[in-house]
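Narrative summary of target 7.
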Amino acid sequence: MAKYSRSASKDVESAMERRKKGTLKSGPGGKGGTVKSRKQAIAIGLSEARAKGKKVPAKKKTAAKKKKTSTKRKTTARRKKKG
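Modeled conformation, tokenized:
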């Protein structure tokens, strides 16, 4: 069973072509500037395919997005013995 649909790969391909032309923009509304990175172009293509409802696996959860549990150190007070 294929992970990605053919139409999803076409979206990635078109994003790569737009990157080569210099018209692929990053950020909301394309306000982040032009995309230079190949990996970023692939990620944008996959994101666009997801938005259209094509068969693409869900984004991987990153460690930064997971809820962090705070660890508190227990301080033990040492008392001096009189004697």
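Residues 6-21 form the longest helix (16 residues).
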